[in-house]
């Protein structure tokens, strides 16, 4: 293992419920209708992908561009007083960064990734941060993980990826990485997908010890 790549939402920031709440509100306010599968379907999608989903699948009477703008603006407003960083997340990144180059590969837009890095003062330690907005396809496609590995200059097969959602796990597995699952308690990942990972941990604070075990 030569590098560690973190997902953001659900791994370092407790934001999956927040994304869900904001998107639901935008859909309801603009004539759409939420469906039972909508939440899980959007996890891992890039901004253009989930914005199109709100309009084309859920019926929000907006353009995808306007839907994206409304959701991201509200998420940015809520992050203004500090993103909801998960307990132990900042220290986990610092501990791992002492031994490995680290990156973030997230479906969040760059403005929210930057908000997290600034709030935790991790900008100098996280050498690479990639949003799925910056690649061809969001998760479960492996693009964002492959891009992060490429920017780090590390073979994807030599990277560990830390993920919480079904689509995120699929993306990291498709990239050929050693995947560590941190199951999201609010939206648990598919058990069949979780069974494919190298290790499962209860929270990101347990990551350093899991990495040591895998390295051994």
TrEMBL record:
Keywords: Hydrolase. It comes from Prauserella muralis. GO terms for molecular function: hydrolase activity. Transmembrane segments: none annotated. This is HAD family hydrolase.
């Amino acid at each position: 293992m030569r590098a560690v790549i973190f997902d953001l939402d659900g791994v370092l920031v407790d934001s999956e419920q927040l994304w869900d709440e904001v998107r639901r509100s935008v859909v309801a306010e603009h004539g759409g209708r939420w469906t039972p599968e909508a939440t899980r379907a959007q996890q891992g999608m890039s901004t253009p992908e989930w914005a199109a989903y709100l309009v084309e699948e859920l019926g929000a009477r907006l353009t995808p561009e306007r839907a994206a703008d409304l959701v991201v603006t509200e998420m940015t407003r809520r992050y203004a007083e500090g993103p909801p960083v998960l307990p132990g997340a900042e220290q986990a990144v610092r501990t791992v960064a002492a031994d490995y180059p680290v990156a973030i590969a997230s479906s969040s837009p760059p403005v929210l990734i930057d908000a997290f890095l600034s709030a935790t003062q991790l900008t100098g330690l996280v050498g690479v941060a990639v949003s799925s907005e910056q690649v061809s396809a969001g998760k479960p496609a492996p693009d964002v993980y492959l891009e992060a590995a490429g920017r780090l200059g590390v073979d994807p097969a030599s990277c560990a990826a830390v993920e919480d959602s079904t689509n995120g796990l699929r993306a990291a597995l498709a990239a050929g990485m050693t995947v560590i699952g941190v199951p999201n308690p609010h939206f648990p990942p598919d058990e069949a997908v979780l069974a494919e990972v190298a290790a499962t941990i209860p929270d990101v604070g347990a990551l350093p010890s899991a990495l040591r075990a895998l390295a051994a």
